[in-house]
Write a structure and sequence with these properties.
Number of strands: 8
CATH topology: Rossmann fold
Order of helices and strands: EEEHEHHEHEHEHEHH
Shape: globular
CATH class: Alpha Beta
CATH superfamily: Alpha/Beta hydrolase fold, catalytic domain
Largest sheet: 8 strands, mixed
Number of helices: 8
Radius of gyration: 16 Å
């Protein structure tokens, strides 16, 4: 487990790689960070996946300039559905799939902004399953999700920032016949799976009224791992 550089057409991209113990092989999962960037919380999520037998790679989408310079550009790419961030995610998928210890299945686990990217990547035909956690859902969701891979999604019932997004996603997944598992956790806020303990992210939790919810987070993880075990053809 540690830092790696992923080659892209615009130069190397920083990322954090966590692998199963020993010489075990496993399906691949790309872990996409929230707006706060690649922090210790995201690394912990990546380590969690590796402990469950997955090859997990968390790219730093702010590699070329840091959060202050890259946040607006990255969010703009998400809104447009194209741009450098999507190119970087694809470079990570290609790199991860080419690793000797990575089996064929590739999925995405995303949080907040990263959850939005997971939803946007779902219909590309390049992934076997995606797991957006409190990810924003586009207004034209039906068009955006046409041909989507299976989705396991988790939202907080007290998420004032994404009010109505879970219902929108559920309706379109159901209407489109897309295999899915979506759950809204009553009493949980936005970022309920994120355990920020210090720094800017922790301060923003107080401002935005977001908080870690251990029970909801534990249940969401159980659903995600069960879903990935089914659709990434992974046996722990």
């Amino acid at each position: 487990m540690g830092n790696v550089l992923v080659p892209t057409t615009r130069g190397d991209l920083r990322a954090y790689l966590a692998q199963p113990t020993g010489a075990a092989r496993g399906a691949g999962v790309i872990v996409l960070h929230e707006a706060y960037g690649l922090n210790d919380d995201i690394r912990s999520h990546t380590d969690h996946l590796a402990a469950e037998g997955y090859m997990a790679l968390a790219p730093d989408l702010y590699s070329r300039g840091g959060p202050m310079r890259c946040l607006a550009r990255t969010m703009a790419a998400l809104a447009r559905g194209r741009g450098r961030a999507f190119d970087d995610i694809e470079a990570c998928r290609t790199w991860l799939a080419g690793q000797e210890r990575c089996t064929q299945g590739i999925g995405i686990l995303g949080f907040c902004m990263g959850g939005g990217f997971a939803i946007a990547c779902a219909p590309t035909g390049r992934y076997d399953a995606v797991a957006p956690n409190y990810g924003p859902v586009p207004r034209q969701a039906r068009l955006a999700l046409t041909g989507s891979c299976p989705i396991v999604a988790s939202y907080g019932g007290d998420d004032w920032m994404l009010r109505g997004h879970a219902e929108r996603l559920e309706g379109e997944l159901q209407g489109g016949g897309i295999p899915h598992d979506l759950k809204v956790y009553p009493g949980a806020s936005h970022s309920f799976m994120s355990h920020h303990t210090n720094g800017f992210a922790s301060a923003m939790d107080r401002v935005l009224r977001t908080r870690f919810s251990p029970e909801a987070s534990s249940d969401a993880w159980a659903r995600i791992l069960g879903f990935f075990a089914r659709y990434l053809e992974h046996t722990p």
